[in-house]
Amino acid sequence: MASDPFGTLHGALWIGGGQWAGKSTVAQILAFRHGITAYHYDYHDARGHNDRRIARRVRLGQPPDGPGLEDSWVNTTPEEMVAETLAGFPTRFEWALDDLRPLASPRPVLAEGWGLRPELVAGVCDAARRMVVMVPTEDFRQRQLRDLPRATMIGRGLSDPDRALRNKLERDRLVAEDAVRAAERHGVRVIVVDGSRDAEAVADLVAEHFGSLLPRATVPAS
Predict the structure, then answer these.
(1) Which CATH number do you get for residue 176?
(2) How far apart are the C-alpha atoms of 195 and 197, rounded to whole Å?
(3) Which residue range forms the structural domain that includes residue 92?
(4) Is residue 102 in a domain?
(5) Residue 108 lies in a domain
(6) pLDDT in tens, 41-58
(7) What does the radius of gyration of the chain's CA atoms come to, in whole angstroms?
(8) Which InterPro entries match (predicted)?
(9) Mean pLDDT value across the chain
(10) Is residue 75 part of a domain?
(11) Does residue 165 sit within a domain?
(12) Which of 12, 29, 94, 207 has the smallest CB count inside 10 Å?
Protein backbone atom coordinates (compact mmCIF):
# COMPACT_ATOMS: atom_id res chain seq x y z
CA MET A 1 0.00 0.00 0.00
CA ALA A 2 1.34 3.43 -0.94
CA SER A 3 2.00 5.95 1.82
CA ASP A 4 -1.26 7.72 2.64
CA PRO A 5 -0.69 9.93 5.71
CA PHE A 6 -4.04 11.74 5.55
CA GLY A 7 -6.13 8.93 4.09
CA THR A 8 -6.58 10.90 0.88
CA LEU A 9 -5.72 8.08 -1.51
CA HIS A 10 -7.82 5.51 0.31
CA GLY A 11 -10.81 7.86 0.31
CA ALA A 12 -10.43 9.23 -3.22
CA LEU A 13 -12.76 8.54 -6.12
CA TRP A 14 -11.30 7.83 -9.54
CA ILE A 15 -12.36 8.25 -13.17
CA GLY A 16 -10.06 6.66 -15.73
CA GLY A 17 -10.49 5.57 -19.32
CA GLY A 18 -10.01 6.77 -22.86
CA GLN A 19 -9.20 10.14 -24.32
CA TRP A 20 -12.16 12.32 -25.36
CA ALA A 21 -14.74 10.42 -23.30
CA GLY A 22 -15.70 13.49 -21.25
CA LYS A 23 -13.89 12.54 -18.03
CA SER A 24 -12.85 16.10 -17.17
CA THR A 25 -16.33 17.47 -17.85
CA VAL A 26 -17.99 14.84 -15.66
CA ALA A 27 -15.48 15.44 -12.86
CA GLN A 28 -16.19 19.18 -13.00
CA ILE A 29 -19.93 18.57 -12.84
CA LEU A 30 -19.60 16.29 -9.82
CA ALA A 31 -17.16 18.64 -8.09
CA PHE A 32 -19.64 21.49 -8.46
CA ARG A 33 -22.65 19.42 -7.41
CA HIS A 34 -21.07 17.83 -4.36
CA GLY A 35 -18.61 20.48 -3.23
CA ILE A 36 -15.54 18.31 -3.68
CA THR A 37 -12.10 18.87 -5.19
CA ALA A 38 -11.40 17.56 -8.69
CA TYR A 39 -7.85 16.57 -9.62
CA HIS A 40 -7.20 16.73 -13.36
CA TYR A 41 -4.39 14.33 -14.19
CA ASP A 42 -3.74 15.64 -17.70
CA TYR A 43 -3.10 19.18 -16.49
CA HIS A 44 -0.60 18.13 -13.82
CA ASP A 45 1.01 15.50 -16.05
CA ALA A 46 1.65 17.99 -18.86
CA ARG A 47 2.74 20.92 -16.69
CA GLY A 48 3.40 20.26 -13.02
CA HIS A 49 5.42 17.09 -13.57
CA ASN A 50 7.71 18.33 -16.31
CA ASP A 51 10.70 18.93 -14.02
CA ARG A 52 10.44 15.39 -12.73
CA ARG A 53 10.11 14.07 -16.27
CA ILE A 54 13.30 15.87 -17.32
CA ALA A 55 15.18 14.67 -14.23
CA ARG A 56 14.12 11.09 -14.91
CA ARG A 57 15.35 11.28 -18.51
CA VAL A 58 18.72 12.61 -17.36
CA ARG A 59 18.97 9.86 -14.76
CA LEU A 60 18.30 7.27 -17.47
CA GLY A 61 20.88 8.81 -19.79
CA GLN A 62 18.24 10.11 -22.21
CA PRO A 63 18.07 13.57 -23.84
CA PRO A 64 16.53 16.00 -21.32
CA ASP A 65 13.95 17.24 -23.83
CA GLY A 66 12.94 13.73 -24.85
CA PRO A 67 12.46 12.58 -28.43
CA GLY A 68 11.61 15.19 -31.04
CA LEU A 69 8.14 15.61 -32.46
CA GLU A 70 9.08 13.73 -35.62
CA ASP A 71 10.14 10.64 -33.69
CA SER A 72 7.23 10.92 -31.26
CA TRP A 73 4.44 11.28 -33.79
CA VAL A 74 5.63 10.52 -37.35
CA ASN A 75 8.57 8.08 -37.33
CA THR A 76 6.75 5.49 -35.24
CA THR A 77 3.71 3.22 -35.21
CA PRO A 78 0.60 3.30 -33.02
CA GLU A 79 1.65 -0.01 -31.48
CA GLU A 80 5.03 1.42 -30.47
CA MET A 81 3.30 4.48 -29.07
CA VAL A 82 0.95 2.30 -27.02
CA ALA A 83 3.81 0.25 -25.60
CA GLU A 84 5.67 3.41 -24.59
CA THR A 85 2.56 4.99 -23.08
CA LEU A 86 1.60 1.95 -21.02
CA ALA A 87 5.18 1.50 -19.83
CA GLY A 88 5.27 5.10 -18.63
CA PHE A 89 1.94 5.11 -16.78
CA PRO A 90 3.20 3.54 -13.50
CA THR A 91 5.85 6.23 -12.99
CA ARG A 92 3.43 8.99 -13.96
CA PHE A 93 0.86 7.52 -11.56
CA GLU A 94 3.34 7.77 -8.69
CA TRP A 95 3.77 11.45 -9.49
CA ALA A 96 0.00 11.88 -9.37
CA LEU A 97 -0.11 10.15 -5.99
CA ASP A 98 2.51 12.60 -4.74
CA ASP A 99 0.15 15.41 -5.75
CA LEU A 100 -2.80 13.80 -4.00
CA ARG A 101 -1.41 12.39 -0.76
CA PRO A 102 -0.70 15.74 1.00
CA LEU A 103 -4.29 16.91 0.44
CA ALA A 104 -6.38 16.73 3.61
CA SER A 105 -10.14 17.05 3.30
CA PRO A 106 -13.23 15.68 5.03
CA ARG A 107 -14.64 15.07 1.56
CA PRO A 108 -13.17 12.71 -1.04
CA VAL A 109 -10.99 14.05 -3.81
CA LEU A 110 -12.21 13.09 -7.30
CA ALA A 111 -9.26 12.29 -9.58
CA GLU A 112 -9.72 11.91 -13.32
CA GLY A 113 -7.43 11.16 -16.24
CA TRP A 114 -6.40 8.52 -18.74
CA GLY A 115 -3.26 7.65 -16.76
CA LEU A 116 -5.32 6.62 -13.73
CA ARG A 117 -5.33 2.97 -14.70
CA PRO A 118 -7.45 0.30 -12.96
CA GLU A 119 -4.46 -1.90 -12.18
CA LEU A 120 -2.67 1.06 -10.56
CA VAL A 121 -5.66 2.41 -8.64
CA ALA A 122 -6.31 -1.13 -7.34
CA GLY A 123 -3.00 -0.86 -5.49
CA VAL A 124 -4.20 2.02 -3.32
CA CYS A 125 -7.93 1.42 -2.73
CA ASP A 126 -10.96 -0.73 -3.49
CA ALA A 127 -11.04 0.11 -7.18
CA ALA A 128 -14.25 -1.82 -7.86
CA ARG A 129 -16.18 0.56 -5.58
CA ARG A 130 -14.18 3.73 -6.01
CA MET A 131 -13.45 3.83 -9.73
CA VAL A 132 -15.19 3.98 -13.08
CA VAL A 133 -13.64 3.79 -16.54
CA MET A 134 -15.17 5.96 -19.26
CA VAL A 135 -14.49 5.14 -22.92
CA PRO A 136 -15.95 6.71 -26.06
CA THR A 137 -17.47 4.78 -28.93
CA GLU A 138 -15.79 5.40 -32.26
CA ASP A 139 -18.73 7.55 -33.41
CA PHE A 140 -18.52 9.70 -30.30
CA ARG A 141 -14.74 9.99 -30.66
CA GLN A 142 -15.21 11.24 -34.21
CA ARG A 143 -17.78 13.76 -32.99
CA GLN A 144 -15.31 15.06 -30.44
CA LEU A 145 -12.68 15.41 -33.15
CA ARG A 146 -15.09 17.48 -35.22
CA ASP A 147 -16.35 19.64 -32.36
CA LEU A 148 -13.21 20.17 -30.26
CA PRO A 149 -10.36 21.80 -32.20
CA ARG A 150 -7.82 20.87 -29.51
CA ALA A 151 -8.55 17.18 -30.13
CA THR A 152 -6.71 17.31 -33.44
CA MET A 153 -3.81 19.52 -32.34
CA ILE A 154 -0.59 17.62 -32.81
CA GLY A 155 2.25 20.13 -33.15
CA ARG A 156 3.60 22.42 -35.83
CA GLY A 157 6.30 21.83 -38.38
CA LEU A 158 5.84 18.09 -38.75
CA SER A 159 6.82 16.52 -42.07
CA ASP A 160 3.59 14.50 -42.23
CA PRO A 161 0.93 15.96 -39.91
CA ASP A 162 -1.78 13.67 -41.29
CA ARG A 163 0.21 10.57 -40.39
CA ALA A 164 1.02 12.02 -37.00
CA LEU A 165 -2.66 12.57 -36.27
CA ARG A 166 -3.59 9.08 -37.48
CA ASN A 167 -0.91 7.61 -35.23
CA LYS A 168 -2.14 9.57 -32.24
CA LEU A 169 -5.79 8.69 -32.75
CA GLU A 170 -5.03 5.00 -33.20
CA ARG A 171 -2.81 5.07 -30.10
CA ASP A 172 -5.66 6.63 -28.11
CA ARG A 173 -8.10 3.99 -29.36
CA LEU A 174 -5.78 1.12 -28.44
CA VAL A 175 -4.99 2.56 -25.01
CA ALA A 176 -8.72 2.91 -24.34
CA GLU A 177 -9.28 -0.73 -25.32
CA ASP A 178 -6.51 -1.76 -22.95
CA ALA A 179 -8.14 0.26 -20.14
CA VAL A 180 -11.38 -1.67 -20.67
CA ARG A 181 -9.55 -4.99 -20.44
CA ALA A 182 -7.82 -3.86 -17.25
CA ALA A 183 -11.14 -2.70 -15.80
CA GLU A 184 -12.70 -6.09 -16.49
CA ARG A 185 -9.79 -7.84 -14.75
CA HIS A 186 -10.24 -5.71 -11.63
CA GLY A 187 -14.02 -5.60 -11.52
CA VAL A 188 -14.16 -1.88 -12.33
CA ARG A 189 -17.30 -0.54 -13.99
CA VAL A 190 -16.95 0.60 -17.60
CA ILE A 191 -19.22 3.39 -18.89
CA VAL A 192 -19.36 3.54 -22.68
CA VAL A 193 -20.02 7.10 -23.85
CA ASP A 194 -21.87 7.16 -27.17
CA GLY A 195 -23.39 10.63 -27.13
CA SER A 196 -26.93 9.44 -26.39
CA ARG A 197 -26.65 11.03 -22.92
CA ASP A 198 -25.43 14.55 -22.28
CA ALA A 199 -22.63 15.21 -19.79
CA GLU A 200 -25.05 15.79 -16.90
CA ALA A 201 -26.67 12.41 -17.53
CA VAL A 202 -23.29 10.66 -17.69
CA ALA A 203 -22.38 12.38 -14.41
CA ASP A 204 -25.59 10.92 -12.97
CA LEU A 205 -24.38 7.42 -13.90
CA VAL A 206 -21.01 8.02 -12.26
CA ALA A 207 -22.66 9.46 -9.14
CA GLU A 208 -24.99 6.46 -8.99
CA HIS A 209 -22.01 4.12 -9.08
CA PHE A 210 -20.20 5.94 -6.28
CA GLY A 211 -23.41 6.11 -4.25
CA SER A 212 -22.86 6.95 -0.59
CA LEU A 213 -19.14 7.50 -1.19
CA LEU A 214 -20.07 10.89 -2.64
CA PRO A 215 -21.17 13.58 -0.18
CA ARG A 216 -24.75 14.76 -0.41
CA ALA A 217 -25.19 17.06 -3.39
CA THR A 218 -25.10 20.76 -2.52
CA VAL A 219 -26.30 21.77 -6.00
CA PRO A 220 -29.15 19.77 -7.57
CA ALA A 221 -28.57 17.96 -10.85
CA SER A 222 -29.92 19.86 -13.82
Answers:
(1) 3.40.50
(2) 5
(3) 16-213
(4) yes
(5) yes
(6) 999 988 889 888 888 888
(7) 18
(8) P-loop_NTPase
(9) 92
(10) yes
(11) yes
(12) 94
